[in-house]
Fold these 2 entries.
Entry 1:
Amino acid sequence: MTKISQALLSVSDKTNLNTLAHYLNSRSIRLISTGGTAKAISSQGFPVTEVADYTGFEEMLDGRVKTLHPKIHAGILHRRDLADHVAQMTIRGWPGIDLVVVNLYPFEEVISVASTTFEEAIENIDIGGPCLLRASAKNHAHVAILCDPNDYDDFIAEMEKTDGELSSSFRRKLAQKAFSRTSLYDQAISNYLAAKL
């Protein structure tokens, strides 16, 4: 993996976000972000580009469509070791996204509240987040994925140890965790819907 030059951040749980943003900024890593995450980053004085400005496509459907865009997913999914993939990105002028920091809408927390309506539960099913996690985890040979704020310190330590070129074993560990998270998330949604039948 080449050194990380651009990161996408979109988190519901903003625990330790300032620490991570500060570190990424200190390494001159460009930050792309969505809504509340972008506001949290910019409020600390760190430069950040809103996803809508990055893609040229405004968020729509009350936030249901934000990161579901070819520029985002091609940036994550293209293989840096395949000339054809690199050429397709170059023709479009699309840079790679080398780090994805995503945690999901708190579906499990929302449904644990007795007063939560079915409609509220449905609106707390994350769509873009799991897509980002799965895309990044699939392409972990070239992209690092952080889905748990508790991993930020380990990530920073690894970055320092490798001078920004994360080991394949570390990226594989992060990928496994991302797939585990989406699996558990989907199971929670499935269980909830089954209970409503």
Entry 2:
Amino acid sequence: MNTEYIMQYAIIVGVLLIIALVIVKLNHKDFNMDINKLVKCLGGKDNILDSESTMSRFKVTLKDISLADKEGLTKLGAQGIVEIDNQLKIILGPNSKQLKRYIKEMKK
């Protein structure tokens, strides 16, 4: 009788884990797809001179700041954008380090 309860609890826990994973997957945006759009909104890879990142902010130096699509960046999830000379400081959340890594690899 004890093993019967253990099996029932194991099945319930398994079902709850599957539901939790489905919910997380549905709420998680495909950042790899959006990262290409972000680079395009920055004027393309050739327009990017340098980039830096912190926990939530991404700072990028551009050749031509007029090629940057700030509205497009906002639509892709930027929570804030500050323009200073030929630099954009973008609040992206935890994906900023991943974006910097992607741009570094892309520029090679």
